[in-house]
Design brief:
single chain, 165 residues, alpha+beta, Aminopeptidase, seven-stranded mixed sheet, 7 strands, 27% helix, Acyl_CoA_acyltransferase, transferase, EC 2.3.-.-
């Protein structure tokens, strides 16, 4: 994990921050993706509802806790942990924030006794697909939007036994 990044679970008072981080991270896709990213339609209420009773959010901050750099939502679906809205603000990119968030999610999955973690990644964002591949995720399904203007991979990583040390 990036030594300049610390993770913490989102508390009840953090939902507006989680929303702000998602909006800031996904803003660059506004008017670019067709259809538009659903992240840009999220509200504080919709984010809370998405994870209510089955998950939560993780917040990545600078090591000294002075700035929030990113967030990711997580919730259990059947026998795996689904991770969505992985968001790193522009000022936090290239610092290991995304990697730290995903390693944190793997820890959450392991603690819950889940052997698999999944994400959905648009093919029109090839750098994002490559990011997850570097972390050991593999595409297992290829789906299309009804408009056929874009598609996405469902990607998964099977988790082995917890690492020692």
């Amino acid at each position: 994990m990036g030594k300049n990044v610390k993770l913490r679970p989102a508390a009840e008072a953090d939902w507006p921050l989680v929303h702000r981080l998602i909006m800031e991270a996904f803003r660059e896709y506004e008017g670019v993706l067709v259809p538009q990213s659903g992240a840009l339609r999220e509200t504080v209420a919709s984010i809370r509802e998405k994870v209510a009773g089955r998950g939560g959010a993780m917040i990545a901050e600078t090591a000294d806790g002075t700035a929030a750099l990113g967030t990711a939502l997580h919730y259990v679906v059947e026998q795996h942990l689904y991770v969505g809205r992985v968001s790193v603000v522009p000022a936090g990119r290239g610092q290991g924030v995304g990697r730290a968030l995903m390693l944190g999610m793997e820890g959450i999955a392991r603690e819950a006794g889940l052997a698999e973690i999944r994400v959905s990644v648009r093919l029109s964002l090839p750098d994002n697909v490559a990011f997850y591949e570097r972390l050991g995720y593999e595409a297992y399904d290829h789906l299309f939007y009804p408009e056929r203007t874009d598609s996405w991979y469902e990607m998964r990583k099977r988790l082995g036994a917890p690492e020692n040390g």
